[in-house]
């Protein structure tokens, strides 16, 4: 089976509107997408390219999928390139403090956070003894090991260092094969964002009124100001490098 499919990937970031974007693409008459995240290049690579390509049966349409692990788990970047050097990659970025808190809230509500913490504590010392958002962030800050910082649940904070993930991609893919979008701009002006996507994928424009953006995580607790400020300070050097790469600041991310 020809491995040069799919044509595009929505690679991340998690909790940045990627589910809404793939839903919009699913409703586009020129696009086929299988729906659920396949996570082939990151988690199920052993299944083989024939298994992966079998999810994309419509050769008459532009085909793609969404798996947010593809941005953060940098070891899969070379696999994506080897599979299809011409792959187009769409990246949605959300202000990293809000993204981290949304990610923590989702995992907490789904009871995944407690399970991930138990698994982490079996492998590492000192253990995480409080899974509250601010406590978990403070534990993350005191941990100097890149290996452990990338483990769940500490990856909640590591995932917001977007520029490092983008730079790793750009060590493999040419810049013109990346489309970087801002979640807050997608939310406020979906038509403009979808227009950028259609031009990038070389497909017809989206039908008028297309936008399935919807907040899916309910916040059961509030993010306190002190923790938010500490996170903003932490992410500032990474955001500054991102702004330099983009050639502009992102006004929607300003405190």
Brief description of this entry?
The protein has helices spanning 18-26, 49-53, 69-72, 77-83, 96-109, 112-123, 133-142, 146-149, 155-158, 162-170, 183-188, 190-201, 225-246, and strands at residues 8-12, 31-32, 62-66, 88-93, 178-182. The protein is an alpha/beta fold and 255 residues long.
Descriptive account of the structure:
The protein has 255 residues and is an alpha/beta fold. It has two domains: 8-95 and 162-201, P-loop containing nucleotide triphosphate hydrolases (Rossmann fold), CATH 3.40.50; 97-159 and 218-248, no CATH class. Helices cover 46% and strands 9% of the residues. The chain has helices at 18-26, 49-53, 69-72, 77-83, 96-109, 112-123, 133-142, 146-149, 155-158, 162-170, 183-188, 190-201, 225-246; strands at residues 8-12, 31-32, 62-66, 88-93, 178-182. Strands 2-3-1-4-5 form a five-stranded parallel β-sheet. Strand 2, helix 2 (49-53) and strand 3 form a beta-alpha-beta unit. The protein is globular and about 55 Å long. The relative contact order is 0.17.
């Amino acid at each position: 089976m020809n491995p040069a499919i799919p044509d595009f990937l929505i690679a991340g970031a998690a909790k940045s509107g990627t589910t809404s974007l793939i839903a919009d693409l699913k409703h586009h008459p020129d696009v086929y997408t299988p729906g659920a995240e396949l996570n082939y290049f990151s988690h199920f690579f052993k299944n083989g390219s024939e298994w992966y390509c079998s999810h994309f049966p419509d050769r008459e349409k532009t085909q793609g999928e969404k798996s947010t692990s593809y941005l953060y788990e940098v070891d899969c970047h070379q696999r994506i390139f080897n599979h299809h050097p011409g792959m187009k990659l769409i990246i949605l970025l959300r202000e990293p403090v809000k993204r981290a808190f949304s990610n923590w809230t989702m995992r907490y509500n789904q009871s995944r956070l407690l399970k991930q913490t138990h698994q982490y504590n079996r492998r590492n010392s000192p253990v995480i003894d409080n899974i509250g958002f601010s406590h978990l962030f403070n534990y993350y800050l005191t941990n100097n090991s890149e290996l452990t910082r990338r483990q769940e649940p500490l990856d909640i904070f590591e995932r917001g260092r977007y520029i490092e993930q983008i730079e790793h991609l750009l060590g493999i893919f040419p810049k013109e094969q990346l489309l970087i979008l801002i979640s807050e701009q997608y939310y406020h002006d979906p038509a403009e964002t979808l227009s950028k996507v259609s031009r990038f994928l070389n497909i017809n424009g989206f039908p008028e009124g297309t936008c399935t953006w919807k907040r899916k995580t309910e916040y059961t607790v509030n993010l306190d100001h002190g923790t938010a400020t500490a996170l903003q300070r932490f992410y500032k050097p990474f955001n500054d490098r991102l702004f330099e790469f983009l050639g502009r600041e992102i006004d929607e991310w300003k405190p």
